[in-house]
Amino acid sequence: MIAKELGNYGGTPDEDIPLNMIMFYQSIYGLRANKLSKFSPGCAAEGRSDGEYYKAYYEVVSQIKPKSDKTPVITPHIDRNWHIVSALPDLDEENQRRQQREIYRAFALGIICDLVCYSKISEGKYLYRLELNDLEPEEFVVSNGTPCDHYYEVLDALTINPVAVQTILSYMKEKFADERNSSGKLDFEHSYLRRQINELASIEYGKAGLSIFDVALLLKVSTPSAEFDKTVGKGIMREILTLIYEYAQTMVLEADLDGIYGKFVLEQFEMFDKNIDWYMDNWKDNFSDYINDLMRIAVSDIERKKLTDIYEKMRKIMKESSKKREARVLKSIGEGGE
Questions:
Q1: Under the phi-then-psi rule, with left for phi > 0, alpha for psi from -120 to 50, and beta for the rest, what region is 251?
Q2: Sheet holding 116-122, edge to edge
Q3: How many CB atoms lie within 10 A of CB 128?
Q4: How far is the CA of 258 from the CAs of 97, 179, 186, 235, 298, in angstroms?
Q5: Which runs of E-coded beta strand occur in 111-179?
Q6: Per-residue confidence at 220, pLDDT binned at 50, 70, 90?
Q7: Distance (Å, whole) CA 111 – CA 172
Q8: Could you tell me if 59 and 39 are in contact, meaning their C-beta atoms sit under 8 angstroms apart?
């Protein structure tokens, strides 16, 4: 009877169910934790705050540091690293992307604003440390438990240390707020972040006069080839541009914002183009594709803002730069074959 009367509705005979009994049940498929109000992250666009369980969870895991003896709470997971986005992806894709952007922003701010410093520990030994005013320097630890002594490891150290990420973001948020609230005229050209970018340098590589693009390209230089993920470098480049635009937005009239931002990006673009020879002189690896990726991100951003003159100048620089690099690579191949 089940097969005859209820077959079209999912009915299935079962020997374990008595003949005089019909059992009905309803199941819901595709239901995810981030769709349940208590488990979901907040969404400003929808006017929704963090869910009760979501908030409680992140209040705990936001205190977990890489070293157990420095952590005041017990992880809610079987594995103490499962709260880290690189170890176990977040249940909510947008929240995963937000956490990744925060890591990228903390990395950029740490490098640009000298919060993450390449400091001499002893003779011939340098480590990257988090150094904030009025706080003891904190030595970074990377995924394998060793100290952070290479540029690319700073990103790894931040990825496994959400506490340090939030410390940097909170510190800079307060510093930017103090700058806005200080007396006197504030303009982007003479702002704190602009001054820091003007002085951007790498002690590890002994190179001054760096641009915002070099922050992303140095990852390629520093990272072992087999481990380098250019999507991460591109994500950092996008986050740097977003950070600077949002920062300028707080002190520039809306009518002037895009123009001032575009002029700044062009200046950095030109500086970066001049620095490329330094990379080609010092490393055998071919950076050309990745350099084009970084340049293209900025060119596309300027195009979206309809800054036609600046866009055309940057496009011309990118094309000429690419041709110059191609010619250089071909020349080195020719010399190697002689």
A1: alpha
A2: 116-122, 125-130, 138-139
A3: 24
A4: 26, 21, 17, 21, 13
A5: 116-122, 125-130, 138-139
A6: very high
A7: 12
A8: no
Output the DSSP codes for 165-211.
HHHHHHHHHHHHHHHHHSSS---GGGSHHHHHHHT--BTTTTB-S--
Question: Residue 170 to residues 131, 173, 174, 239, 290: CA-CA distances in angstroms?
Answer: 14, 5, 6, 17, 31
298's CB contacts (< 8 A; 6+ apart) are 213, 237, 241, 265, 268, 269, 314
Confidence grade of residue 109 (pLDDT, cut at 50, 70, 90) = very high
CB atoms within 10 A of CB 175: 16
* Structure confidence at residue 10 as a pLDDT band (50, 70, 90): low
DSSP for residue 19: T
Q: Rounded to an integer, what distance in angstroms lies between the CA atom of residue 33 and that of residue 22?
A: 32
Q: How far apart are CA 101 and CA 107, in angstroms?
A: 10
Rounded to whole angstroms, what are the CA distances from 223 to 16, 208, 238, 267? Answer: 60, 20, 19, 27
CA–CA distance, 72 with 57 (Å, rounded to integer): 15
Q: Give the C-alpha separation, 308 to 255, whole Å.
A: 16
Task: Give the separation between CA 235 and CA 183, rounded to whole angstroms.
Answer: 35
pTM of the model: 0.86
The pLDDT tens digits of the residues spanning 157-195 come to 999 999 999 999 999 999 999 999 986 788 999 999 999
Q: Judge residue 133's burial from the number of C-beta atoms within 10 Å of its C-beta, 0-12 exposed, 13-18 middle, 19 or more buried.
A: exposed
